[in-house]
Protein: ABC transporter type 1 GsiC-like N-terminal domain-containing protein
Amino acid sequence: MELRAYIVRRLLLIIPVLFGVTLLIFGLLQLFSPVERVALYVTSPRQFASVAEMIAKYGLDQPVWVQYGRWITEIFQGNLGWSKVVSQPVTSAMLNFLPATLELAIFATPLIIFG
Structure:
């Protein structure tokens, strides 16, 4: 019975910790202006004209609490955004790299344990 209460307590602690982590990450992202955040995805000088459109499209001109609500909703729906590195959605990239990650984890675990 004591173990069950401990597990329930620990599981309930996950909620405020996750909330705090999301607030921290979102707050760090807010250190950059909307123009700076959009400029990361602009690749040619001709696209700079569309920066204002991109800011409106992604809701970066909305109040911070609206942006946070939209951001957290997208995360819970599995939409983690677009990866510039692999030019595909982040969720797809994670799934593509999952087999290699699991292989590394499986082979590294005995090395860590028995090292």
In short: The chain has a mean pLDDT of 91. The two ends are 36 Å apart (CA to CA). DSSP finds five helices and two strands in the chain.
